[in-house]
Amino acid sequence: MLLDTAFDFNKATDENQQKKMKANKGKTCTREREFLYKFNAGNQRLVLTVPLKFPVQENASHLHGRLMLLHNLPCFIENDLKQSLSQFIEGESIKDYDKEAEAALKAVKSGEVDMHQLANAWAKAYTETTLEHARPEEPSWDEDFADVYHDLIHSPASETLLNLEHNYFVSISELINERDVELKKLRERQGAEMDKVMQELGKSLTDQDVNALAAQHFESQQVLENKWTSELKQSTAIQKQEYQEWVIKLHQDLKNPNNSSISEEIKVQPSQLRESVEGNGRIYEEQRQLEESFTIHLGAQLKTMHNLRLLRADILDFCKHKRNHRSGVKLHRLQTALSLYSTSLCGLVLLVDNRISSYSGIKRDFATVCQECTDFHFPGIQEQLEIVQQVVLYARAQRSSKSKRQHDSVNRNGGNEEKSKNIERNQSNILPGEFYITRHSNLSEIHVAFHLCVDDNVRSGNITARDPAIMGLRNILKVCCTHDITTISIPLLLVHDMSEEMTIPWCLKRAELVFKCVKGFMMEMASWDGGISRTVQFLVPQTISEEMFYQLSNMLPQIFRVSSTLTLTSKH
């Protein structure tokens, strides 16, 4: 009996393998050979014939399994069939490889193939695919500067670094003060002009005259603002270049003890700190801050200790530099600078709208604080936002094209077109629960800002644990685990400012929801990072009452497992 099967590998493989075979048709010649296998089943002598196309793209074990199922072959021939099939495929493949090798050598000897091009192709293949022959990656300027700065900030030169940074900060602050004064004078002058025009409206002047003056005022403001924006941008660029070059030179100078000219020349003594002029209207006043701290343990078997803090404070207080601190300027910045390139970063959650910009609300205030001090390590806030916008547009385009293909397929099969309307929206905006990240080295107490998108729904009292804002917090905590952010500050009520509808029951209900959700997310952290101790700061607006603050403070230990203290007394 003859068992014959025409087994076409082009049909047996998946779509990707078919594409590979089609691409390889021009490179290798496809040959078909028959595999013969003879075996006895009782008194019958059977022969299995399988046409195979070489080069074989399929694993021999997969083909063996299909043959056993297709022909209901007896189990006692399974191992022998597998061995014979593997030997046949290996032997025929080696013959083909030998023929191709001989043909290639013949082409080289006859001059059909350029020896130099062939050698270059092989050299390129080795350098691109094997680590042994690849060129070592050269560290970038940012990596070199980061290593140098990390060494200096953990050395006696840290005081010099912080003093220089503070002087640069005061210099930019003075420029900003000059800008604000000039803009204020311009607005006052324009306001007086507009008042005079409005008094003459209907007498000697018309609405067109008023509109023309308003347009002229707007243009004058734009020209002045653009002038100061350009000047500030140029000043920060010069400061950044000078600072980075100075840090590199100082590091090289300190490596050579015989040459201390650079450090002596540039070193700033504590008495030489420049102080900003008080009373200029831009010094941030410190208000009375309420704070409660707790130590908790989470986990059933593997317990992890965490620190929790409840604070009544403005969220931007963690970003602003205190210019009126005549003493302790260095101490205020030292901890943030020491941990800049470490595994103990500090993060902050900002609640923003769906537009990636810095033109209004908390985004504008945050950008203003960022621009008051030069960032010597990362791009400026505007440059980072532009990069985020490009990434969002690219991601939206990819998702949109994929969704469109899926909806087209559904519509062809008789599906409705209502779902496709969701695709038609502003592709540059983000959705509630999504967030983008900016990095900073020039802020007071944080290194990373999470800009979490929320909508007006967070001001209602009916959000649940599945709300996009809550799920956004979960994803933020996951990023903290994977990127060494050990301190994170979260708006407890998911708002930055209080309003009339936020009553005491509203605040208690919202705080309970956030506390419980964050507790669950922190317990998940143990599986994400192995149980690292972290600090979570819950922030409430400054306008909240002390009574409300202490009610929230009493709620926290009821939800989290707060560590109890033990009092040891002597028997005597």
UniProtKB/TrEMBL annotation:
- Gene Ontology cellular component annotations, sorted alphabetically: cytoplasm
Identify the species of origin. Gopherus agassizii
PANTHER family, sorted: PROTEIN C12ORF4
Task: Report biased composition (Basic and acidic residues) as residue ranges.
Answer: 406-424
Instruction: Look up the coiled coil feature and give its residue ranges.
Output: none
Q: What is this protein called?
A: Uncharacterized protein
Q: Which InterPro entries match?
A: Fy-3
Chain segments carrying region Disordered: 399-424
